[in-house]
Amino acid sequence: MIFTHDTEAALGFVAALADTAPGASDSGDDELGDPGQLAHLLDVWRYSGRRDGDERELAEVRDARSRLRTLWLLDRDDAADAVNELLAEAHALPRLVRHDGIDWHIHATEPDAPLARRILVEAAMALVDVIRYDQMDRLRECDADDCEGIFVDLSKNSSRRFCSTRCGNRMAVRAYRARTA
Predict the structure, then answer these.
(1) What DSSP letter does each residue of the chain carry, written as one string?
(2) Is the pLDDT assigned to residue 66 strictly greater than 90?
């Protein structure tokens, strides 16, 4: 394990959220097109706390998605500045919590804070560990030439290149066809 469980979960959620954007999603469309799609993503990732389920919340989460996609690919020093900015904006106050069958972990916002703020702060808290451990190279963009997906590389040797098996297989088929043509 490179990071703690809650850090890995938060990074995984950020990548999943970011990969709902057009160009990064499996469908190529915006997969946060309505509040129901957002609710499904939150359910899959067992995201706790307040949910309003309205268009305003959806718009705020889309804005957070865009901000996090940009932050994901920053260099370490710029990422540190961006993380500090997120934490300051939210007046984040880290504390240990235990809920929903998950053992002690860190939250830095109240459970009733707006969803987009909680997403940004939880992402920032996870990125604190990434930056402190000098592991920004673990935050990657998919190597597939037709994919804008991002992912966190948790492999032992930091060798993962694609956001999904599908992208890896597609690129392998292309390379094979190019060699045999």
Answers:
(1) --S-HHHHHHHHHHHHHHTTSTTTSSSSS-S-SSHHHHHHHHHHTT--S----SHHHHHHHHHHHHHHHHHHTS-HHHHHHHHHHHHHHTT---EEEEETTEEEEEE-S-TTS-HHHHHHHHHHHHHHHHHHTT-GGGEEE---TT---EEE---TTS----SSHHHHHHHHHHHHHHHH-
(2) yes
